[in-house]
Write a structure and sequence with these properties.
With about 675 residues, the chain is mainly alpha-helical. About 60% of the residues lie in helices and about 5% in strands. The protein has 26 helices and 8 strands. The protein has helices spanning about 10, 15-50, 55-80, 85-105, 120, 140-145, 145-155, 165-175, 180-190, 195-210, 210-225, 250-265, 280-285, 295, 305-325, 330-350, 350-360, 365-390, 395-415, 495-500, 520-540, 545-550, 560-590, 610-645, 650-665, 675-684; strands at about 425-430, 465, 470-475, 485, 490-495, 510-515, 590-595, 600-610. It has a 6-stranded mixed β-sheet with strand order 1-3-2-6-5-4, with no helix packed on it. It has a two-stranded antiparallel sheet with strand order 7-8. Helix 2 runs antiparallel to helix 3 (about 55-80) and helix 11 packs antiparallel against helix 12 (about 250-265). The chain is elongated and about 85 Å long. Mean pLDDT is about 80; it is low at about 1-15, about 120-130, about 140-155, about 155-160, about 280-300 and about 645-680.
């Protein structure tokens, strides 16, 4: 290029512009993948109710994302840098968006959502009048669903296994998400100007926080909308978003996130494999495809060399894997982060269910609070944590101590949730006898009381009503109500004999549709709980930067990509997949009332023992965090012991070897630094 050419300055800045374009596209893809993750987490309770499944099955659906990620993550981390990384990221975004749309598709093939048995029989505007009240000496088929109706409904609802398509869509989303982070960050690290890659990566993660914020807002809006919005007359719906049977428009969030992910894939297909390749070299490379060179004519002779190259790559992969697995510091850190991440993933998966059951808050309200409070707090904590490490120039041991401190403070804040557990609701037939006067030792098979023994009620029915005495009854019939007035959400039941037997000093022994709200003291605990979560999120985020640094600085520099890939593999397989499942299994054990589907089988849970739920939910998280804190102490001890006695500066001959190796590795786009020099640098 001629020096006097006026376009020379623009062409010299072309690689920098291409890196900036790549950074912009990558930021958009990070927002898209974070948005998809939050949409799934905020919709998991809605999916559980819509498909009438237990929390453990819902946890399996949530973990399917990690299963998809697990299938390709190691190979993408190791071999991806040798391929066209922007195009691979674009394909990943396209697959991720397709998976989100596939997740939403079952909604359009399942028919309308039926939140009670009456809606199977009569979907007209007056269907609420079919709610059974207590009529003395009435026959059982009037109140209970007959076997014939159950049989017909079972055939009609055989599509309930369509939750498998949700699982497959989420798994496909996990496959598509895999190349975005490792290939995107490595691309920036390889081609950004020296010293600028850390700035780009910091900005990238900060910009990515837009995704969760949008996700929480979108989740809140979708949770307010009824699942069949646009398809049914909403004036005929008698349940509210606070009802345990309410299902929001969960599918809408997946459609939006899927379209955004597909849109984010477009720029990557127009970016070069390497922005630093000169234009002249690219022209020669392009024209070479049109000529039959001597190498092409002897292609068959070069096949053995190609096979040897593949063999060497595979052998090198297993040798590198053996190297990191025999590194005790790396293995120890993988185990402790697995415990920490399992606690975070499991608790976050069911946080919306926990808040709803513990504090009686709707999913839409919870989404708004978590989105606008905790996410900015976490972003601030991550920025401050990275600033502290850079400001005080912490050594590897110092970074370990800082990570331990932030984890300890976070654990202490989280333990405060034990004192914020609310008492169980007063529910006749589950926590109290039907007359509302005495607690029961077990919620299983509570016998009828004098107030409803002659009503011949169907105990499996779930149509909760709140008596004027503050007690929730499972149905108007079990409350002993004789008549009703009003329509839909404003329906009131009168002459309820079980309300009268509680000794309630009021002549109006009535009940209205819906569960009784939580006490005012529990509502106050909810806002204290949100404050504690902000402090917990901030202290956890302080150590977020330390997680990456401790992963890569405890291994040889040329193995850092593989170390991060294997670390993510373990976290996703044993944490991301298993944690939601065993959390869900234990949460299911706290259920007091299960729904029964049209086949007469167990469906989703209607109401939990909130006290036991809180102890299990918080206790399981604490039991995972405490061993991690002990392992941090062991890790710091061995890192300090390893660094003692080492010179702070490498010998001059080792510097020369390192410089020569770096020059050669830069020409080959590889990293090759002697391990002993790397160990000295990590301790300095």
């Amino acid at each position: 290029m001629e020096a006097g050419n006026p376009r020379s300055g623009w062409l010299q800045n072309l690689p920098a512009c291409q890196v900036l374009m790549f950074f912009s596209a990558l930021s958009f893809s990070f927002i898209a993948k974070a948005l998809g993750g939050i949409v799934m987490k905020s919709s998991i309770t809605q999916i559980e109710r819509r498909f009438d499944i237990s929390s453990s099955v819902a946890g399996l659906i949530d973990g399917s994302f990690e299963i998809g990620n697990l299938l390709v993550i190691v190979f993408v981390s190791y071999f991806g840098s040798r391929l066209h990384r922007p195009k691979l990221i674009g394909i990943g975004c396209l697959v991720m968006g397709t998976g989100s749309i596939l997740t939403a598709l079952p909604h359009f093939f399942m028919g309308y959502y039926r939140y009670s048995r009456e809606t199977h029989i009569d979907t007209s505007e007056n269907s609420a009048s079919s709610l059974a009240t207590c009529l003395i000496n009435q026959t059982l088929p009037f109140n209970a669903t007959s076997p014939e109706i159950l049989g017909k409904g079972c055939v009609k609802e055989s599509g309930s296994y369509m939750w498998i398509y949700v699982l497959m869509g989420n798994m496909l989303r996990g496959i598509g998400e895999t190349p975005i982070s490792p290939l995107g960050i490595s691309y920036l690290d390889d081609f950004a100007r020296e010293g600028h890659s850390s700035f780009y990566i910091g900005c990238l993660h900060s910009i990515a926080m837009i995704g969760p914020i949008i996700g929480f807002i979108l989740g809140s809006l979708c949770a307010k909308l009824y699942v069949d919005v646009g398809f049914v007359d909403l004036s005929t719906i008698r349940i509210t978003p606070k009802d345990s049977r309410w299902v929001g428009a969960w599918w809408l969030g997946f459609l939006v996130s899927g379209l955004i992910s597909i849109t984010s894939s477009i720029p990557f297909f127009f970016l070069p494999k390497s922005p630093h390749t000169p234009q002249k070299e690219r022209r020669i490379s392009t024209s070479s495809h049109l000529l039959k060179t001597e190498e092409e004519r002897n292609q068959s002779a070069n096949l053995p060399n190609l096979k040897n190259s593949v063999t060497n790559s595979v052998t090198g992969f297993f040798q590198s894997l053996k190297s990191i697995l025999t590194n005790p510091l790396y293995v120890l850190y993988v185990i402790l982060t697995l415990l920490q991440v399992s606690s975070f993933i499991g608790s976050f998966t069911y946080v919306f269910k926990y808040i709803e059951q513990q504090y009686g808050q709707s999913a839409s309200h919870t989404n708004v609070l978590l989105g606008f409070i905790t996410i900015p707090t976490m972003a601030t904590g991550m920025f401050l944590g990275g600033y502290i490490i850079r400001k005080f120039k912490l050594t590897l041991v110092g970074i370990g101590k800082f990570a331990f401190f932030s984890s300890l403070v976070s654990c202490l804040f989280y333990a405060l949730n034990f004192i914020l557990i609310c008492e169980n609701k007063s529910v006749a037939g589950l926590t109290l006898t039907y007359d509302g006067n005495n607690p029961v030792t077990s919620h299983l098979d509570v016998p009828p009381s004098n107030c409803n023994s002659d009503c011949n009620c169907d105990k499996s029915q779930w149509e909760p009503v709140c008596g004027n005495n503050g007690v929730t009854y499972l149905s108007p019939c079990l409350a002993g109500c004789k008549s009703s007035s009003g329509n839909k959400k404003s329906m009131v039941f009168h002459n309820c004999s079980c309300v009268e037997e509680t000794g309630f000093q009021n002549k109006n022994y009535s009940a209205h549709l819906g569960e009784c709200p939580k006490e005012d003291a529990c509502t106050k605990k909810f806002y204290i709980y949100i404050t504690v979560q902000v402090l917990n999120a901030f202290s956890s985020a302080l150590g977020a930067t330390s997680v990456i640094l401790l992963t890569v600085k405890n291994v040889q520099p040329e193995l850092k990509s593989l170390a991060m890939g294997f670390h993510a593999l373990v976290i996703r397989s044993l944490g991301g997949i298993l944690a939601p499942i065993y959390y869900g299994v234990l949460i299911d054990r706290t259920c007091m009332k299960w729904s029964t589907n049209s086949c007469g089988k167990q469906g989703s849970c209607r109401i939990y023992n909130s006290t036991l739920f809180g102890k299990v939910y918080i206790g399981l998280s604490i039991s995972l965090r405490c061993p991690a804190l002990l392992l941090y102490i062991v890790l710091i001890f061995f890192m300090k012991k390893k660094c003692q006695g080492k010179d702070t500066k490498p010998p001059e001959n080792e510097k020369n070897v390192m410089n020569e190796a770096n020059k050669e590795s830069l020409m080959n786009n590889e990293y090759c630094i002697p391990s002993d020099v790397a160990e000295v640098e990590t301790c300095a």
